[in-house]
Amino acid sequence: MSLTDVCADKRGAIIERWQDAILASYPAEAQRFFRGEKDRFQNPVGHSIVRATEVIVDGVVLGRDAEVADALESLVRIRAVQDVSAAEAVAFVFLLKRALRQEVGERVAQDGLWREMTALDDRIDALAGSAFDVYVSCRVQIANMRVGAMRRRTATLLQRLGDYPEESAMTSTDEESRIMGGGKA
């Protein structure tokens, strides 16, 4: 039996264990809400965690890569707006390794699937690198949005004081749009 087969048999337990580990990084009240509220519109974070973990396990562990990048991005975007370090923001990826070992580690040892496990670890490490890239991109986008907001507030204040022509306010907005990828170069 291959590691993929073993993981497929334990898919539900792996996902549940990983979700529990991710949710454990949140305060107790948030955990209860994320676990309890099933409406995706009332609980977009909890819904994203459930959906993304399923997609990532299917993609990375079981070899069905189609939507992994989007699922990873949805989890990282949640963490990027929270008050956590970069390491804390992407740590959830490494929690997948722990969940896997807890669920299939005995079978890996029993059946000598170390080579396959090492390859899976490498895929998870690559996923962590991608998560970090997404996190940095999100943080840059957030910083640019804050700078743009500050520019608009400053321009508005200076316009009220009569010291700032309106064309300059438009130029800063156009520049901001270009930086964010939405405007002309």
Characterization of this structure:
- By secondary structure, the protein is mostly helical.
- The protein folds into 2 domains: about 130 residues, no CATH class; about 40 residues.
- The chain has 8 helices and no strands.
- Helix 6 packs antiparallel against helix 7.
- The longest helix is centred in the C-terminal third of the chain and has 48 residues.
Number of domains: 2
Shape: elongated
Biggest β-sheet: count, sense, barrel?
A: none
β-sheet strand percentage: under 5%
Number of strands: 0
What class, by secondary structure content?
mainly alpha
Q: From N to C, what is the helix and strand string?
A: HHHHHHHH
Through-space gap between termini: 55 Å
Helix content: over 70%
C-alpha Rg (nearest Å): 22 Å
Low-confidence stretches: none
Short structural summary:
This protein has 185 residues and is an all-alpha fold.
List keywords for this structure.
2 domains; 185 residues; mainly alpha
Secondary structure elements and their pairing?
Elements: H1 3-9, H2 11-23, H3 28-36, H4 44-61, H5 68-80, H6 86-111, H7 114-161, H8 166-179
Helix pairs in contact: 2-4, 2-6, 4-5, 5-7, 6-7, 7-8
